């Protein structure tokens, strides 16, 4: 009987261990107390571990102390007793971890030999005297450090705790639910930052504020940068390399600091073999930077740097360009000889690697960056070693130039991406604020991943600040691409990030605010608002935003920015004091700065128009523009001097490179004959109403359409200095005004008033009045038989002005149940995502709606990237997926179908960015959004984040029609469509949709 009971007990114990093992495999969750009221759980690491493990442990201990004021002890041996103990170590580097593995108390089979992978689990009674242990096991040194800092993430410490002054919430205890789990390996092997264009932020801040003892970006600054990277699970840096900064390896301590933090050092496309040519090449002592006649001196530099860094983790950029991002100095050689010379450069570089490191070059990370003329060499047959990573680039504005072909995707070296979120160069810099849409970053990097770019992602982040969220998104995508399957995942990621910083209750409102911010920046970046360019630098130009047409798109943009600015100020008042500084850096300053830049220039443009029309309000627009300029100075001064008691002094410049866009604009003064009077300005006209232009009078509003229920504006304004009382009287009962009387004065905000004219369509007759609009007014596209005309009379003490109101109010039976788009004033405007139907031709190849991109806030695209293009017109109709758009016209004849797309580039050399369009049963016409090099077309595209192409079509007769859009190349992102029958007058964006109401 005793034997039976003993056997049963043994069975129960074994079953218990088996259940524990099974539970661990299935993701068992256990609670673990990191810090109690009187003490924090110690963390045990080995003294033999790499320095980064000790760094991570100390960062973690500091994080706990910030939250609870209890500092965890860092120990190296098992204590005699401990209620709870953290044990962290790398396989083979920590004898206690190795003993747990040998005793089969932990299973590391899922991480052994893998890149940056770690496991976490809670063990009951792992050693005598220890009741519970949280065990973190890393496959390598970075994995162990990431595992330790994962605890900081879980207890609410932001990666931006130091860099954006994000204060973790205080509490007395920290208890976590720890899931038995394996983390990693990451989606992208090498993930990192390029510190670039540091002249106006990072370098002066480091040199004058943070590290004056070095007078440059030295080891103290890099330690803080590398801490941020560790917390973000980034592992690679391309150091700062502009002329204002000393070369990374020439400053003592930089290289060792990188190794201490386990950061892999690489260099940009113009810095071969870890050499900063811009700062290190001395013409006087070294000769020309030219390999065909000075190879010996160049090899000396390569050899010295490779020898000095042989014991550090590095990525060698192979190949060669000219000095500081210029073409290779070999213009007098033939193309064939240039290619041969570059092949010799690469062969010599690999021989140097072999000699100085003692390792086979095939085992050393290398990047070949086919950028600018080097891309031409590559496309012309340049032989690049198969083990080197092909690192593709964007066009400096966020659009990847090309990706690996199916054959290139098979290369052992794989693929990578160098991507810009900050840029100095033509057609215009964007160095000041974070203005690259997170959705665009997601789309381009997600696409790149599908083309086997899994080996190296580098983000040009400028000065780090204020690109915090773009950096966070980029690194999180590189770590786990599967968490970002669609655009909504980006929005959720942003909401989670903002919630972690400012509280879950504020997160939805903040997310919408930031999404609106990025949407407005996508339409035009703040740095582009003067319509000027650089390299060469031009003066500010006229805006493309329509002020007098399409409900005044300039003022619509202005109001949108002012609304965001007001919202962020209201939120700032509600943010707790402990979060104020972080809020200022991450939300308030970028949103407010962008809003003020728009206000500065948009009020300038309003001033110019108002002055031409003789409006007294021109002076008020001047004042508002000047106030915006002054406020930018005030906010920037606060950033540099008051924020965190001057911690960020010299970090933020409001005028990088002193480009014209950052200056105070010029202003116009309205012409005046000193007489006080009433003036009217009508939508559609440059000059004020009743002012004679040749033989015509600008006194009729745009035709209002019964099927669109649209409206038009009239500006009532003061001329001269004084007061004017006015009244407006509709002469027909069906005309409605947003106001019918008012008083104009010289006081701010009272110098003009905008009235909206709309129609009560239940009262207006149907096409009974066939009187033509005044001679010279270009609305002949509306059939006169369906027009009904009226008028509104405006009066002041000494002025009477009558304006015409034309309506289009027919009754067509076939439009009664119609749900598509209708012609208005000679055009049909459509948002591409609002298709009537889509026809799918093969499994997995169809159009999808992606939200958060484009002018309309959504695009349609075929994301089956590996699908072959369909370019044969005979096969497009029968084999390509297509969208249909139902629309109705009141006119017929030749029309221009204009399609706006996000300005992406072809996947491969020789490919296109194409779709095909046709109206009704016409043959498909292929349109291609592809641009050539740095052409003027490309410049305009990236300044607008839009590419527009058109195709001529014929509408045989008025009535119902259908536009079809076929896929030709996958990946094209369609944004807006304008079917122009001759009525569109030009605008920055296409006019508002003309959907039937």
UniProtKB/TrEMBL annotation:
<protein>
    <submittedName>
        <fullName>Glycosyl hydrolase family 115 (Putative glucuronidase)</fullName>
    </submittedName>
</protein>
<dbReference type="InterPro" id="IPR041437">
    <property type="entry name" value="GH115_C"/>
</dbReference>
<dbReference type="InterPro" id="IPR042301">
    <property type="entry name" value="GH115_sf"/>
</dbReference>
<dbReference type="InterPro" id="IPR029018">
    <property type="entry name" value="Hex-like_dom2"/>
</dbReference>
<dbReference type="GO" id="GO:0005975">
    <property type="term" value="P:carbohydrate metabolic process"/>
</dbReference>
<keyword id="KW-0732">Signal</keyword>
<keyword id="KW-0378">Hydrolase</keyword>
<dbReference type="GO" id="GO:0016787">
    <property type="term" value="F:hydrolase activity"/>
</dbReference>
<dbReference type="InterPro" id="IPR031924">
    <property type="entry name" value="GH115"/>
</dbReference>
<feature type="domain" description="Gylcosyl hydrolase 115 C-terminal">
    <location>
        <begin position="820"/>
        <end position="993"/>
    </location>
</feature>
<feature type="signal peptide">
    <location>
        <begin position="1"/>
        <end position="23"/>
    </location>
</feature>
<dbReference type="Pfam" id="PF17829">
    <property type="entry name" value="GH115_C"/>
</dbReference>
<dbReference type="Pfam" id="PF15979">
    <property type="entry name" value="Glyco_hydro_115"/>
</dbReference>
